[in-house]
Design goal:
binds S-adenosylmethionine, four-stranded mixed sheet, 9 helices, GMP Synthetase, Chain A, domain 3, Rossmann fold, seven-stranded mixed sheet, alpha/beta, globular, 288 residues
Length: 288
């Protein structure tokens, strides 16, 4: 085991926990974790819950930039998609400051949705945005998509729509923190109500990062597009055996809206479970 200073740090969590978990426990250990600023967010299987503190302490020992280790205590819940977490080691703090692509985000873990796992996607889309574009940033959370766009693209303006009042307030703070108030407007409310009221026909591009349920908002995305057409980035969890499902959903929504559409790009974003994966489909749509 490595010493706190001077000694070699363990290469991975398994090495850090050598001698502290039994062989059987080691087999259940989930070694990967999310890093949200100086907070590590880890999954601890039920069988290892009695060892949570030991595991958390090993994470701290392994990575000197972490001050806190939180353990996930439940699934993403309800319409706000918030995942409960509790501190298991280090400083008792769930308020993270996270940095990505030249932006800084305050994130209250356990009160808002946040995932660092879509950082590559945020930058990929930023690089597609053309000068002056108007972007509908649906399901904006604490603002990572629109704020990364504002700092990394020639975007004109993003309308960032969020329903969770805590996430909405934190997005407003993050807009100020990143000095992008001229480019990102936070809008509190339900996409389904906000779009027909204020965004119909205004957007060159819409981003839909709500992988569980975004299909029922495709009509709102199509409504938000300009008459000359625009691009939609549609995120979706799908069964690995049914990867064409998002295309059927887009076809149905476009037919209902009387619009033509074509796929520009699609890919698997990440594996979610043994049978499910997250995919993204970029498509262009225009009134027929
Ligand atoms: C999966 S999270 C994505 C958050 C953020 N874009 C990110 O990547 O961190 C989905 C977000 O959409 C919000 N949301 C869910 N339904 C909504 C709706 N009908 N209108 C507006 N926001 C909604 C949730 O509160 C949550 O913050």
């Amino acid at each position: 085991m490595a010493e706190k200073s001077g000694g070699k740090r363990p290469r991975d969590l398994k090495e850090a926990l050598k001698g502290k978990l039994t062989k059987k426990e080691m087999r259940h250990l989930i070694s990967s974790f999310d890093s949200v600023g100086d907070i590590a967010v880890i999954q601890v299987p039920e069988l290892l819950e009695h060892k949570a503190k030991v595991i958390g302490t090993a994470v701290l020992l392994m990575n000197k930039h972490f001050r806190t280790v939180c353990m996930v205590t439940g699934k993403h819940k309800g319409k706000y998609r918030v995942q409960p977490v509790k501190v298991i080691a280090g400083k008792r703090n769930k308020a993270a400051t996270y940095r990505e692509s030249g932006c800084t985000f305050k994130v209250d873990l356990g009160k808002v949705f946040f995932s660092p796992r879509l950082s590559t996607e945020r930058l990929r889309i930023a690089r597609l945005i053309k000068p002056g574009e108007v972007v509908g940033a649906f399901f904006a959370g604490v603002g990572p998509f629109p704020i990364v766009f504002a700092k990394n693209s020639p975007m004109g303006k993003a309308f960032a729509i969020e329903l969770n009042p805590v996430a909405f307030r934190q997005m407003q703070e993050n807009i100020e923190l990143n000095k992008v108030a001229g480019k990102v407007e936070a809008v509190k409310g339900d996409v389904r109500k906000v779009v027909p009221k204020t965004l119909a026909g205004k957007c060159d591009r819409v981003v839909m990062p709500l992988p569980e349920g975004a299909e029922s908002f495709l009509g709102s995305a199509l409504l938000a597009l300009k008459e000359k057409g625009g691009v939609v980035h549609f995120y979706r969890f799908v069964e690995k055996s049914d990867s064409e499902k998002p295309l059927r959903e887009i076809r149905a929504a476009a037919e209902k809206a009387g619009m033509r559409w074509k796929v520009l790009f699609r890919k698997k974003v990440r594996s979610f479970s043994a049978t499910k994966e997250q995919v993204v489909v970029d498509f262009f749509a225009k009134g027929a």
